[in-house]
Design goal:
The structure is a single chain. By secondary structure, the chain is mainly beta. It has a twelve-stranded antiparallel barrel. The N terminus is likely disordered.
Length: 284
């Protein structure tokens, strides 16, 4: 693949973790070299997947590729092992951010007092925040692998399998998608498109969308058992505007629709979420 393909795959490292970071395309380089982008911007994303309200936050952008195939792209890191031009595969790590119910029922010095308060008064009913009283989901490193296949030089099928999400570290998700790599126009502008679906095991969906009896008692949400299977579908577009060989403006819009059993979770306020982000990046 060319460096234009790598630019088209430039991924965001959103603090909310809502944007789906893609594995960058293979970028053949001289031994011992690297290709690196860093930047800063802003993102508007739902408080959590399925939330009614959105939050705005600073957006760090990072993508690095080394000549040995190793890469860091947003919250993902891995290694390209394939030497065939039509296939990409290798190990993959992804950082799962913490999901915090905005301090409601969070970690306080007076833990015993807080728990008594939660038992006495369901927090979701009081605050209108459906995560209030629900346990926080701690940040985790998920491990797995990726496999991409080029249908044509401009289109590739993407897939990744990751395990280790949730507080019990037993959540697993499979992401399948198709990407249209960089469409160049006017010399400085490039568009890229992607669409896909996510499947998850029952333990993953229970961690993020389920409500146990104890959770129900503390939060006021009804008990809900999420099943495994299809979790969501997504559609995104990315626009890169290169001002010079070193500077670029990169923007992305992604729509995600919850599907399957998680769509019916009492934690879901809106099944369709939109994430919008833009950032200035510098190429080293």
């Amino acid at each position: 693949m060319t460096k234009l393909s790598a630019v088209a795959a430039l991924a965001f490292s959103a603090a909310a973790g809502s944007a789906c970071a893609q594995v960058p395309a293979t970028n053949p380089m001289p031994d011992g070299s690297r290709d690196m982008y860093v930047g800063l911007g802003a993102v508007s994303a739902p408080r959590y997947q399925g939330a009614q309200d959105s939050e705005r936050a600073a957006l760090p952008v990072l993508q690095v590729q080394w000549s040995n195939g190793a890469f860091v792209s947003g919250m993902r890191a891995g290694i390209h092992l394939s030497r065939a031009p039509q296939v990409e595969f290798g190990p993959l790590l992804e950082w799962q951010p913490r999901r915090d119910p905005e301090g409601e029922g969070g970690d306080f010095d007076g833990v015993g007092t807080m728990r008594l308060y939660l038992v006495a008064t369901p927090q979701a009913a009081l605050s209108g925040n459906r995560l209030a009283g629900m346990p926080a989901i701690h940040s985790r490193v998920q491990g797995g692998g990726f496999l991409n296949y080029y249908l044509t030089p401009d289109w590739r099928f993407t897939s990744s399998l990751l395990y280790g999400a949730g507080n019990a570290r037993n959540g697993m998700k499979l992401e399948l998608g198709v990407q249209r790599l960089a469409i160049a126009f006017d010399g400085q502008h490039r568009l890229a498109f992607d669409a896909g679906v996510t499947l998850a095991n029952r333990r993953y969906n229970m961690a993020f969308f389920g409500v146990s009896e104890s959770d129900s008692f503390a939060s006021g949400n009804p008990v809900f058992a999420a099943g495994g299977g299809l979790k969501d579908a997504r559609l995104g577009v990315r626009w890169n505007w290169a001002w010079s060989p070193s500077w670029m403006l990169t923007s992305q819009v992604q729509a995600t629709r919850l599907l399957g059993s998680v769509r019916m979770s009492p934690l879901v306020e809106r099944p369709t979420n939109l994430t919008v982000s833009t950032a200035i990046a510098y190429r080293f």
